[in-house]
Structure formats: C-alpha cells, structure tokens
Amino acid sequence: MSLAYFMGSVNLWTALPPLIITSLFFSIFERSNPEGRVSDTNEIKIEYDFIVIGAGSSGAVVANRLTEVADWKVLLLEAGGDETIVSDIPATAFYLQRTDIDWQYRTVAQSGSCLAFNDNKCNWPRGKILGGSSVLNYMLYVRGNKKDYDDWEALGNTGWSFDNVLPYFIKSEDNRNPYLAANTQYHGTGGYLTVQEPPFSTPLVKAFIQGGQELGYEHLDCNGAQQTGFMKAQGTIRRGSRCSTAKAFLRPVRDRPNLHISMNSLVHKIIIDPITKQATAVRFEKDGQIYTVEARKEIVLSAGAVNSPQLLMLSGVGPADHLQSFDIPVMTDLPVGDNLQDHISLGGMVFTFDKPYSVMDSRYFNIPSILNWTINGVGPLTTLGGVEGLAWVNTKFATESDWPDIQFMFVAGTPTSDFGSIVKANNGVRDDVWDAYYKPVEGRDTWQVIPKLLRPESTGTIRLASADPHTAPLIDPKYFEKEQDLKVLVEGTKIALALGKTQAFQQIGTKFYDAIFPGCEQFTPWTDEYWGCFIRHYSSTIYHASGSCKMGPSSDKTAVVDPTLKVYGIKGLRVIDCSIMPKIVSGNTNAPAIMIGEKGSDLIKADWPLSKRENATASQFKQALPIHVEESNIEKGENFVSS
C-alpha cells in the first residue's frame, strides 16, 4: 500500500474524527483494494490517438473502452489525484465534501432559493480525483425512467431511446444481489461496475418500505420494469467498499501499454485550428509546467456539467458575446453553458423517533465497526452515507403512467445527527438558522425523507468568471425560476409528511419536528405557502448537474453536440458526460453518466472502423523519454512534452 493511498489529502484526514484516523491504520492489509493501484504515468508523449479530459464517471469508462483497441494510444488527463482509503468507506460520504478531492464550487447568490445558506449560495460538490464525483457521491445506482430516454429520441436524438441505452447499462453492470441479477432483462453480471444492496441496514428501511405500501405503492426494483414504487437502495459498492469508476474501469486495465494516465493535470484549453476548425491538441498544467499534447484522431471532453462547458468556452467554443468579453477568440458560436439542470430538493425535514437506530458517529465510527469493515467488509460502515431507501411517487401534477415526478431519498439520520459538525457546513447552513431550528434536536434519533424534484422546468447557466482556467466558473442554477417547480416539490413534501404518519413509522414513535423554520414565520404553518418558503430556504442540491452541453439534432439551435456527441462546428471534438443530457433523467445521474461513457465509446469506434484505422507504428507514435519540457519544441509560447 502506498502512503498516498493510505493518507490521502491532509484536508480530508483533518475532516475526520481522531478516532477514525487512529483506527484506520488497522487496514494495513488493504482488504478493500486487491485490484492494485493506478500509477501516474511518467511517459507522456507528444502525440496520442485520443486524449480524454476528465477521469470521472464517464471519462474513466471512455479511457477503458478506447484502449480495448490495442493500436489506439490514449492519454487520460485528470485534474486531481488518486483515491484514498477514506473515500473507500461508504459511510464517510459526507466527510469527503469540502476537502481537496472536491472542486468546492458554490453557486452565485440566489434570490429565490438557498436562502438559509451562507450568502444565499448553494455548495456544489464536484469530484476532483480519479473517478470524479463517483468518489464523492452516495453511491446510489439509479438509471432513470424509460420515458426519459424515449423523450430524448423524440427530440431528434436518434439512437438514445430506452431500448438503445439499456444494453449499455447492462454491459457495465456486475450485479451481486442474486434476486436482481437473475432478472437478465434488466440487470447484468460480469461487467466492470459492481452493484449490490449494502450488507448493512437499520430497521428503519423496513418501516420506509412498509410505509410506502400503506400509501399504496409497491415494493419493487425501480431499476427494472417499473419505476413507481419503494425499494431498498442499490449501490455501487464492492465487498463493502465504494466502487468508483476509477476502481471499476481504470484499475483492471492499468497495465495496458496503450493507456497513459496523467494525474494532477489541469487542462487550460483545447487548441483548435482557426482555419480548419479541427481540434488538434490539449494544453495542460502539471507540476508547475505547461504542456501541449497533440491528438491524431479525437479529443474527448468528459469533465462534467460544470467543467466541460468551462473548458469549451476557454477554448473559444461558446456564446460569442460572452467569449469576446474575455478577449477569447471565437472558434464557433454555440449555446455552451445554457440548459443547466439539477435535481433540487427539500433537505431540511426532521422526524424524531424513539429507537436507537439512526446514523451517528458514536455508533458507526468506533473500533469494532472499523475492524469489522476492514477485515470482513461488513457492518455499519458499509451504509451508503446513511441513505437506505429510494422511492418514486406521483403528485397531483403527474399525468402519465409510471413517470413519477418526485423521488424520495430515505436517510437514517438528519443534518442534526452529527451535532452540526459536518452536514451543516456541507450545506452551508447559517449559524443563526442552525441555532434557532436544528440545535434543539442535535444528537437525537432522527430520520429524514428528502423529496427531490425530478424534471425541473427551470434551467440555469454556466459562465466564465475569468479567462484564467484556475478561476471557478459562475454557476447559476436559477432554482424555482419557474413557479411550477416549487408547486410540484410542495406536493412531494406533503407525501413525505404522510409517510411519517403511517403505522409503520408510528410504531417506532415517529413525530415530525414542527418548529417553525426561520424566515417563514409570516406564513400560516403547514400551508402550501409555508412549505414553499421552507423549500426556498433549505434548497438542497443532490449533485446532479446536467444539460450544459445539450445534445440535439442540427435543427435544434439550443444544441451543442449532435446525437453522436460531436461538437457542432468543430472537428475531432466530442463531449461525453452528463452535460449532453437534453433533459435531466428522473433519478440519480451516476449510472446514466457511465452509460453515456459506454455508448459514447461505441460511437467513436463506429467512426473509426478497422478498415479506417491507421496502423500505429513506433515511428508514428513518438519515442518515449522521461517526462520533461523540451525547450526546443516551444512554439508560440506553447511547450510540447515528450516522455
């Protein structure tokens, strides 16, 4: 085990209780990591066939699948470093935000949402690490609704119907729950990505499912034939540890000679020939040096719904007037950064109850639990950050069969479970709000349903704050700009309240914590106006940024990429990540991001069939030397690197 893997970042370790830091040294046996580690390459060449920018949920898949072709040389660039043992532990999900494996983005100040948070801004965690946000997320494996993808195709995106994308979900999957894996119509085994229910759960999840049945919903596999219903959460975990896309797709192929992975490599721009409009190279920064590497075939941008539009705009692809305001030469005028969508939710509800079941540090992060996880891969530390159940329910606004408009995330705890030490800061809750509303119930046994708006009508934007690639972009989600979004979420909140009143939850002494939320005193409690105020104050992102490089046919003037994911007006450049979604899916976005990586890889292969592939010879693929900046190759201020 490397020291870097064991220790990780200083910020990450200091976020954890001292007990964890001490106890985790028992994991010297590296039980959770038999695959081996991915090494940072010391052989970066002047030229590759493909350059993939971003090693996250989609980019790791693309790098794996492209290097299946032995004579294709692929460079994978990642701004962050490698995973650590802390991120391997599923229960530590909430400890990973605001560390240096997170970009630590914040939205611009909002006027109609995030009102209980510091500066009226929502924190937007994004993974800056191999595996991207699949290392920071709560590991929930959710595909979305069949109609989401059929709707994509109806918008002119040929090849993106549910029947088209389902084989790609199945291709990736190695489902290890026997009763799910047996359903071969919807699930797969033997793929790179391990999916299973966590080995540990509290009795609360049984109450959640029984309560749903009392409300008239079925208990079923919502990744199967029907979505509407209640289920125990399925997660991307393996032997009790997080199965990120780095673990799933990169570690098994780390020794392929045609795959080079360069970590801690911040991409500055994609270089595009202003005459031919051909994407030719990528300029990036590593260890204080600026390097430029050429792409013989294509450049693939898989940096996510925040960084992909940022990099396109830094490269001259985007709204012309916006780029010109930063003196960035315009390569092509496209609506990059528009159509930004996210799943917004009410994250602040609290239900108290009388049993010692909820997720608390004292119960989970102790010597017996850590040893049980380290040696056996079981126990409380295998919980998906406390998320135990999922459900899809219909409000009065849901008009189509089996296309629910609200998703529930059921959590065996609330923001108060850690006495305000971590979740409060993750969400950015102001001190005065916390002290008035949450402090009286700190440390009590609580549970929470987070109602999530599935198909928002409101869309936001990503814009540059500067032409400096080190400067974070401006994120403006414009939550609830369309009033209908708030109305739907209010109805979802009412269903969550009804769930708490079912016999299943009343048997354990459940009560809704009914203090009046600060800032909403002027409204009559429990009216739609009151709940709308509560939602506008505790507006919680579920980290599902999507849509900012919209896919659409050539007739769609709001589209950035075509249905083969090629950027309009630029040759040799594709975007393959959640930013291409024309409309956000009705569920968590990590599994769809992996699917997009799988399908996008096949789209590339289809454009470079065997008969068209150039035989890469030693002379064509530049000779390898130890990595350094070659001063003799500096042209127009650009440093070319060879290895």
TrEMBL record:
Residue ranges crossing the lipid bilayer per the database entry: 12-29
Protein name: Glucose-methanol-choline oxidoreductase N-terminal domain-containing protein
Source organism of the structure: Daphnia magna
PROSITE patterns: GMC_OXRED_1 (PS00623), GMC_OXRED_2 (PS00624)
Domain Glucose-methanol-choline oxidoreductase N-terminal: 127-150, 304-318
Keywords: FAD, Flavoprotein, Membrane, Transmembrane, Transmembrane helix
Recorded family membership: Belongs to the GMC oxidoreductase family.
Annotated InterPro entries: FAD/NAD-bd_sf (IPR036188), GMC_OxRdtase (IPR012132), GMC_OxRdtase_N (IPR000172), GMC_OxRtase_C (IPR007867)
Pfam family, one: GMC_oxred_C
PANTHER family named in the record: GLUCOSE DEHYDROGENASE [FAD, QUINONE]-LIKE PROTEIN, GLUCOSE-METHANOL-CHOLINE GMC OXIDOREDUCTASE
Keyword Flavoprotein annotated: yes
